[in-house]
Amino acid sequence: METITIIILTITILFFVFLGVKEILQERTKKKLCVICLSITLTWMTLLVLLYLNILNNKIIIALLLGQTTLGIFYFIEKKVKEKLKIFRLPFLLTLIIIAYSLIELTLSLSVLSLIITLWTIFILIYLFQNNRRANSFVNKLIECCKKW
What we know:
- By secondary structure, the chain is mainly alpha-helical.
- The protein has two domains: 1-58, no CATH class; 81-149, no CATH class.
- The protein contains six helices and no strands.
- The protein has helices at 3-29, 35-52, 59-80, 89-105, 110-128, 133-143.
- The radius of gyration is 19 Å and the shape is flat.
- 8% of the residues are buried.
């Protein structure tokens, strides 16, 4: 059986297992759980361990699954933060991507680290000066960037 078939089957099985025990898990954790998210996250974590142990060498499927978790975290956090903090969408998402990449490659270049620190610094400065009349218009554009498609 192909690796991708086994992985899709594993996610499907985990989905139905977690769906069956969702109430018990939610009672214990006191948090709402997404069984799809849990199934995919557990799968890529397992695949990542297999990658580290040189049992699996397919980084593509791990990257795809990690990307889904990354975007899930992004949307989860986006729903929870105040509107004015949504200015940080881009640096936050890029930070998640860098973390995911680092999990797969076990490395982080100084240039990408410098870039993300610079980006966060710029966005923090924009945030701090958002009450300035000129900056306010730009801040609103940053906050509204993903709305009204």
